[in-house]
Here is the input.
Amino acid sequence: MTEAPKKSEWRSLSSYQWLVLAVAWLGWVFDSMDSTIYALVMTPALREILGPGATTQSIGWYGGLIFSIFIIGWAVGGIGFGIAADYIGRTRTLVITILIYAVFTAVAGFSHTWWELAIYRFLTALGIGGEWAAGATLVAEVWPESLRVKGAGLLQSAWGAGYFLAAFVYLALSDYSWRVMFFVGILPAMVAVLARLKVREPERWVKVRRSPEWRAQRSSKLAVLFESGMRRDTLVGTALAFVAVVGLWGATNWTPTLIRELLESRELANAEVARLVSYATMCLNAGAILGYLAFAPLAERLGRRGAFLVMLAGSALALPAAFIFPNTYASALLLLPVLGFFSNGIFSGFPIYLPELYATRIRATGAGFCFNAGRVLAAAGPFMTGILVTQLGSFALAASSMAVVYLLGIMILSQARETRNEVLR
Here is the structure.
């Protein structure tokens, strides 16, 4: 069993190592904020864009379609920029991707048709997917081995903080047009400037970049992932990420719409609905942050496979409980933190587990591919939820039916390789 790090180990971290975590953490915070904005404003945005004929069913259809296009963009960006990070460097890629998602989130505020919004969300997603691959690899290679798992857990907690930030901004701007929420998305550009000025490439990557093995490699980095010694890790890592993404985007991220559905009979003003949706999102992500932070100690105590099993089983139970059982706003607030703990907390496993599967020369490519390739198939998740809304007539029933994907994840986990106590190669 891996012991918890002693206080002296934390104190041994240099100011530069903390800076690297801070920059990657802030990049992921704004990553989360920019991806969450759409979930918060989807209903009012599509109601305005689609015009007088907008219905619950049409909003569900186009909303799910845009979600799916966004996830495909995330996959393309994650794989493409993951490869770029191995070739041109982790820091350079981090800067480029943050600028991409900041600029196109803001541009989405000028959308006047659903397909314009879909295009801008696709371009935003390119940067969001690429930022994770660069940031997670950067932290894994700069932080010391004894604290690397804890650093990865802290990094992933940024996603929950980004949800909180999006909810706070939405609450503060509830009296303004949904377009203003997208304009706020330009803020992450400041993090890109900080990264460009303060963060250098990891010494581990620089050394490998100059090695004879690097120059001798003939096959593409993507092809290497499917060589006999790595094929199983790549397939299992990709499948686990697929399950987590389907659960999140096909169900959990419909929480704002679920809350709106619960509040329909109360005939509240738009500003009041926005306030209550923001509070519900905060409750979901209070649980999510606890889940992000809990995965690291679980992974050290139970192993990587054991920690994933806890999160998968918990998600399979919490999702239908949170979406079907609540018949009041108050009861939803009690169950959403539990859902957030499991369905969001599982994502802390990926910056821990995926970098451990690959050597430095292909680490960003491997982690980026596994975390994002499954999104191409997972893009069907929100699209399927949108279809189920038209069939079942309810966002709650449609989203809760997606819980079955977590049972698939438990079966996939039986093929995963345990990497606890292994050091980065």
About this structure: Residues 8 and 132 are 29 Å apart (CA to CA). The chain has one domain: 17-205+219-413. The radius of gyration is 21 Å.
